[in-house]
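Sanity check

After download, print the first record. It should look like this:
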Amino acid sequence: MVAEKSYKIVNILLVEDSEADIRLTREALKENKIKINLGVVNDGVEALAYLKKKGKYKNTERPDLILLDLNLPKKDGREVLAEIKIDDSLKTIPVVILTVSKDEEDIARTYELGANCFITKPVDLKQFTKVVDAIEDFWFAIVKLPPKEEKG
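Expected structure tokens:
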């Protein structure tokens, strides 16, 4: 039995600089069982502007989940994660590290910084779709997420 979804529309922020990985994620999410509003930014500076609703992002919806790559231009994913988790208005948003890295140091460091999970991206579309489906099922069918209201 699948738990009832708690959101009618789920907002996901994908922080990814690879156009191929963005396409893969969009394709995988097309197969989803729930309505997803996917925001995409290509670097760490843009991610923080999006999350803090600055500039062109002033009217964006607060994400229910962040899919964060580690190797980003301008500000890497580790720095973005650290800033999210020290910001009282953002720290309750779950952050899933979705990266090509398999490095033990990256895994340990991102958990120290407050990542909610660490997933190494599969390169195969079928496997990537399975991973995205599992993320969706876990975070939006099983887990009870914090309220959408923004603090502060």
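If your output differs, re-run the checksum step. Summary of this record's structure: The chain is about 40% helix and 20% strand.
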